[in-house]
């Protein structure tokens, strides 16, 4: 386990005071910063039972739709066991389900993957679903048997469907032969040591009652509060009923993001490949309506039980919110580093995703992790070294011609390349007499087959970029050398992909 990150004192103070100037109406907020090793900062404000006590790291809140990532992991466990495939038809696993038909009466098949990625064409249903979590399995299947209305073509377009996730819960039960809660507990929660994460408030021992946050509502902007009873857990429990703590969510998020840690080889509970599958965009979606326009947000989509954002500086961020009457939550993490934030509140409508996004951005800005680490092919390093030595020895890159793909000199002939390079070297006053090892001069990389590095001159720098072919052996298909002037027209996030040798 890597050493935990350390937050500078000034940043910790900023986080502690985060809500001082922000108007948020809720009895309490509990929030934490974490890395793959667990919580590194926690702060609670307000009273989670309106009895004077502030939230702590082990205070239990309902996490609502954050439960969906646990559900998707359960489905993927079954897929890895060969008991279902993501491209199976839903109707193959739920007899009561009927595929929609198009305008000509032809069936439009709905697959397990479509439901997992919110592209099934089942319409958004939050208003109805929040109050139907307690439906029994039989009552739910009776609704399914009567038929569902679809809004669009399955497989095309994003719509957030709770009823679709409930269908996935039925599939898990039908395939595993267990209740969804039992399957998730024995395959995920217990193996991962998430002892404070449960599907029902009644699953906690009586001695834990003093650390379980109560849900509240208000009609007068917090001047007074009334109790929100816990919406009963039934068929919808698989997707929205869970309770947890900031420390357990930190552990869960760290385990998911550890799939991107190149030093990690743990596939015991669920493979790294499946965990990565959860955290990539499957269905593109519009920018969230509950957050102001952000120049840092380059794109967003739904993965499998998680939303995935592309930040123009830090790359991919996985996140999901939860909301039920009496509860609001959000968890998010930077995929490459595993640094994340979780925010809980015990009333609905708080929109904790806004605060969580701001906090995570503040932490990332301060710690400055790369958007992605790229471990270069040995052949990429060897080719870069050969070109670097050729440039520094006089500028004739054809001394490395044995590495060239046939296209390289036909795209730009050798004499043109030599003339351009001579001009560039003159512009920077010639090259310095000595240089650091090339491994210390690597700048960025788009993939294992690509790298850019610098060469220092008397009054400036050159930026050299190469790209290799996918053939065996890999060959140099592109060599570009320019005067280095800062960011190019390429997306700035790419310039923060850190090459490793």
Can you characterise this structure?
Helix content is 29%, strand content 19%. It is of the alpha+beta class. It folds into 3 domains: 9-65 and 193-370, DD-peptidase/beta-lactamase superfamily (Beta-lactamase, 3-Layer(aba) Sandwich), CATH 3.40.710; 73-176, no CATH class; 374-500. The strands form 5 sheets. Strands 2-1-12-11-10-9-8-7 form an 8-stranded antiparallel sheet. A 4-stranded antiparallel sheet has the order 14-15-16-17, with helices on one face. A two-stranded antiparallel ribbon has the order 3-6. Helix 2 packs parallel to helix 7 (162-176) and helix 2 packs across helix 8. The two termini are 22 Å apart.
Helix and strand arrangement:
Blueprint (H helix, E strand, L loop, with lengths): L8 H8 L11 E8 L2 E9 L14 E2 L4 H14 L9 H4 L18 H5 L9 H4 L7 H10 L15 H15 L3 H10 L26 E2 L8 E2 L9 H4 L2 E2 L1 H12 L14 H7 L4 E2 L12 E6 L4 E5 L3 E10 L2 E8 L5 E6 L6 H16 L4 E4 L2 H16 L13 H5 L2 H14 L14 E3 L5 E7 L4 E8 L7 E8 L13 E4 L1
Helix pairs in contact: 2-7, 2-8
Protein name: Penicillin-binding protein
InterPro entries: AmpC-like (IPR050491), Beta-lactam-related (IPR001466), Beta-lactam/transpept-like (IPR012338)
Which bin fits the share of residues in helices? 25-40%
Helical run tally? 15
Question: What class would the helix/strand composition place it in?
Answer: alpha+beta
Count of extended strands: 18
Strand arrangement, largest sheet? 2-1-12-11-10-9-8-7
- Unreliable spans are none
The proportion of residues in beta strands is: 15-25%
- Classified by CATH, the class of the largest domain is Alpha Beta
Q: Looking at CATH, which topology of the largest domain would you report?
A: Beta-lactamase
What profile does the largest beta sheet have?
A: 8 strands, antiparallel
Estimate the mean pLDDT confidence: 93
Tally of domains: 3
- The N- and C-terminal alpha carbons lie at a distance of 22 Å
Please give the CATH architecture of the largest domain.
3-Layer(aba) Sandwich
- What overall form do the CA principal axes indicate? globular
Q: Quick one: CATH superfamily of the largest domain?
A: DD-peptidase/beta-lactamase superfamily
């Amino acid at each position: 386990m890597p050493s935990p990150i350390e937050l500078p004192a000034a940043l910790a103070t900023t986080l502690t005071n985060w809500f001082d100037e922000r108007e948020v109406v809720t009895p309490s907020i509990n929030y934490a910063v974490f890395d793959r090793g667990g919580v590194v900062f926690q702060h609670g404000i307000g009273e989670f039972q309106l009895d004077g006590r502030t939230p702590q790291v082990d205070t239990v809140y309902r996490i609502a739709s954050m439960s969906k990532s646990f559900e998707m992991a359960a489905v993927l466990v079954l897929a890895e066991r060969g008991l279902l495939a993501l491209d199976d038809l839903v109707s193959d696993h739920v007899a009561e389900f009927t595929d929609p038909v198009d305008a000509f009466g032809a069936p439009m098949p709905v697959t397990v993957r479509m439901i997992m990625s919110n592209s099934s064409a089942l319409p958004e249903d939050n208003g109805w679903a929040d109050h139907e979590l307690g439906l029994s399995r039989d009552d739910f299947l009776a609704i399914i048997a009567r038929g569902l209305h679809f809004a669009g073509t399955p497989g095309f377009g994003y719509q957030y469907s709770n009823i679709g996730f409930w269908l996935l819960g039925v599939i898990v039960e039908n395939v595993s032969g267990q209740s969804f809660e039992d399957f998730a507990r024995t395959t995920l929660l217990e193996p991962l040591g998430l002892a404070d994460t449960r599907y029902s408030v009644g699953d906690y021992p009586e001695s834990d009652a003093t650390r379980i946050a109560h849900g509240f509502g208000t009609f007068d902007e917090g001047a007074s509060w009334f109790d929100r009873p816990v919406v009963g857990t039934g068929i919808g429990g698989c997707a929205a009923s869970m309770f947890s703590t900031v420390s357990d969510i930190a552990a869960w998020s760290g385990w998911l993001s550890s799939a991107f840690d190149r030093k990690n080889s743990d596939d015991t509970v669920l493979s790294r490949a499946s965990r990565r599958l959860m955290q990539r965009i499957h269905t593109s979606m519009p920018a969230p309506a509950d957050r102001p326009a952000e120049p840092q947000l380059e794109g967003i989509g739904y993965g499998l039980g998680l939303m995935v954002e592309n930040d123009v500086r830090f790359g991919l961020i996985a996140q999901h919110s939860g909301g039920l009457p009496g509860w609001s939550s959000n968890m998010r993490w930077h995929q490459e580093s595993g640094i994340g934030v979780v925010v809980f509140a015990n009333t609905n409508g708080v929109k904790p995703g806004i605060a969580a996004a701001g906090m995570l951005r503040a932490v990332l800005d301060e710690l400055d992790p790369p958007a992605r680490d790229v471990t270069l092919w040995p052949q990429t390093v060897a080719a870069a070294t050969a070109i670097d030595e050729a440039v520094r020895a006089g500028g004739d890159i054809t001394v490395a011609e044995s590495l060239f793909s046939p296209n390289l000199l036909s795209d730009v002939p050798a004499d043109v390349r030599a003339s351009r390079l001579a001009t560039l070297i003159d512009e920077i006053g010639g090259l310095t007499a000595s240089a650091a090892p090339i491994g210390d001069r690597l700048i960025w990389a788009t993939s294992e087959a690509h790298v850019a590095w610098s060469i220092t001159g008397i009054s400036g720098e050159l930026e050299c970029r190469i790209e290799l072919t996918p053939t065996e052996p890999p060959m140099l298909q592109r060599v570009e050398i320019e005067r280095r002037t800062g960011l190019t027209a390429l997306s700035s996030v790419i310039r923060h992909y850190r090459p490793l040798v």
